[in-house]
Write a structure and sequence with these properties.
mainly beta; single chain; seven-stranded mixed sheet; six-stranded antiparallel sheet; globular; hypothetical protein yedk fold; 215 residues
Length: 215
């Protein structure tokens, strides 16, 4: 379950977004250790062209005091791939979430930072609550090579492929085209997945050297 992620290296991220013609990069929220229920930046295709919008990282919200807040009864920062078929958001409102790293732990202990050394997109879902947007990150089964760091899941990462990005953001209800992508993979654009121990999940203090994840 992905519960902390980074969006840094601003110049690299802006170049990455430009590859896909993403509009309004000036809206991007940058920062390390982005946490659940915070505002994060997502990319949607709901206006025709892909563009940056900002959303609450918690898919289900509830009205409190005249505004929308994360729903206290439904923890929904992630959407498990096995439940996607029943989610109308999967058929109608898919998004991409720009990132540069994420943090996982093993049963709450031994947190590590995962990264590819370059920006990428998490695949996610978004939802409207009045004029407020919310989002979640899709999680897949754990990969055999990453279970020693986090045994439950691996976030779904979009391939660095303009065709995939266009289809994902298209709003097409034909989700069968994404079935092959719902398998955990550690490959990304010929980049090696690395892990590095950190002091705490929300800390940027490293406790060891990076290790390359191999199959």
């Amino acid at each position: 379950m992905c519960s902390v992620f980074d969006v840094d290296r601003q110049a690299e991220m802006e170049r990455f977004l430009d590859i896909y013609g993403v509009e309004h990069p000036e809206r991007m929220i940058f920062g390390r250790r982005r946490r659940p229920t915070q505002q994060v930046s997502i990319v949607t295709g709901r206006h025709g062209e892909p563009q940056v919008e900002n959303a609450i990282w918690h898919l289900y919200l509830a009205k409190e005091g005249g505004s929308w807040k994360p729903h206290k009864k439904y923890w929904s920062i992630n959407s498990n791939w096995k439940k996607l078929a029943s989610r109308p958001e999967y058929r109608k409102s898919r998004c991409l979430i720009p990132a540069t790293a994420w943090v996982e732990s093993l049963r709450g202990k031994h947190p590590v930072e995962f990264s590819y050394g370059e920006p990428y997109f998490f695949c996610g879902l978004y939802k409207f609550w009045g004029s407020t947007l919310s989002c979640s990150i899709i999680t897949l089964d754990a990969h055999s090579a990453t279970k020693i760091y986090h045994e439950k899941s691996l976030p779904m990462i979009a391939p660095k492929d303009s065709d995939f990005v266009s289809k994902w953001l298209s709003g097409s209800t034909h989700t069968d085209q994404f079935t092959d992508f719902l398998q955990p993979k550690i490959e990304y654009d010929h980049c090696q997945l690395t892990v590095r121990p950190v002091a705490r999940a929300t800390s940027t203090e490293y406790k060891g050297d990076p290790v390359i994840v191999s199959k």
